Amino acid sequence: MIETLRDALLRLYDLGGPVVLLLCGLSVVVLTVVLYKLWQFSAAGVGRHKALQEAVDHWDAGQRAEARQALDRSRSYLRPVLAMALDGQADAARLDAEAETRFAKLERGFRVLDSIAQLAPLLGLFGTVLGMIAAFQALQEAGSQVDPSILAGGIWVALMTTAVGLAVAMPTAVVLAWFEARMDAERVLAQRALHTVLSPTGHTAEAPLPGAVHA
């Protein structure tokens, strides 16, 4: 298996040089990060806040007991933050900081994806420049015995590095944009939930449980 991998790497090196080999390595990094983030989002319950939203709606309507029961059913990573608000924590800055701490954990790896999305096209262009230099050097060494295939082959290899760089960068940028959009939606939901709990519009329909606070 090791020899097969080595042979594949050698073929990649012969085909496009060290730049293509590096870009292939970056594509492996991207795939690893994306798979990890998908698992992390799924485990944290990103986008799955039905019970938490029910708790917020009950609290907003003054139904304290129902709100706590709904929150107990929630598996959202934001549940501890909302529980703090329901238990009487009225400092909005503290609650926002707690939520941001959880967002930061979910956003780890975004910088890596962003860096690769920006770096991959530049690496491809760098490989193209190196390939063109090598092609013209071979053309110069040929002297009067110019073989068009020498120049054409060098240009083909050179342009391939740009294509590989774009092939790595474009899907990375798309996936990163999707991840960032999901996190933007999570922030909006968290802000709405916390502000609703701190400033509910409904009246208390029953005596609050111990630890609950009146809005």
What does this 3D model show about the protein?
- The protein is an all-alpha fold.
- Helix 1 (2-44) runs antiparallel to helix 6 and helix 1 (2-44) packs parallel to helix 7 (148-198).
- The protein starts with a helix and ends in a 17-residue tail after the last helix.
- It is rod-shaped.
- The chain contains seven helices and no strands.
**Residue fraction in strands:** under 5%
| Main sheet specs | none
Instruction: Quote the average pLDDT.
Output: 81
Number of strands: 0
What form results from the Cα inertia axes?
rod-shaped
Task: Give helix and strand order, one letter per element, not per position.
Answer: HHHHHHH
By DSSP (H or I, 4+ residues per run), the number of helices equals 7
Query: How much helicity do the residues have?
Result: over 70%
Poorly predicted segments: 204-215
Radius of gyration: 28 Å
Distance between the termini: 65 Å
Structural category is: mainly alpha
Topology:
Layout: H1 2-44, H2 50-60, H3 64-73, H4 79-86, H5 92-106, H6 110-142, H7 148-198
Helix pairs in contact: 1-6, 1-7, 2-3, 2-7, 4-7, 5-7, 6-7
Key descriptive features of the protein:
about 220 residues; mainly alpha; rod-shaped; disordered C terminus
In short:
This protein has helices spanning 2-44, 50-60, 64-73, 79-86, 92-106, 110-142, 148-198. With 215 residues, the protein is mainly α.
